[in-house]
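tool=predict chain=A
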Amino acid sequence: MSQKLLSILLSSAFLFPIVSYAEGSYLKVGLGESTYAGFPNTTGFPIDSSRTATAGLIAYGKSIAPNFSGEIGYIDFGSSGTKTHLLDSELIISDQLRTRSVYLVGIGDIPISSSVSFQGKLGMVMHHTNTHVRVKLLEISASEDSTYRKTRALVGAGFKFQFPKEISGVVEYTYFGTTVDGSELSLLSAGLLFHF
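tool=predict ok
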């Protein structure tokens, strides 16, 4: 028997328990509040550097080992903007931003009771952020659109609640690192997992 074939057989023998366990898949949908903290102020005028928006997410997950699963998902962090009136409202500065991201995480479960568990997650996220800045002075206006892409590590924690066998709920907080020129993005969300 060749060494290659022997290696494959031994590997499959060690992997079989993990593969046989990895039968639980789920679809996750959720809503939450995203927070952009420390949004850069490049105008030189006083503009609020922290803002929130309503976010939505959808993800697919699969059990890899007991109390451990992998998840890939898409998040729309929502659109958030500010409008500042200066010089007796003769100067108006407005800006709008929207971030959409794709992420991949590993999630570990620590059971607290038969229906509640603590979850920790660690992974990577790819941000795609669009910004629109508009400055208007009397009847003259100028605007600028920009697109930013960044890949960052993410970390999160939360609680999972088991309902009937096919449905569970999660409440979680996730920190997604920096997006636009150093703006820090986080999400507090609640969601449902549909197991199949």
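The domain at 23-195 is CATH 2.40.160.20 (Porin). Confidence is low (pLDDT under 50) at residues 5-22.
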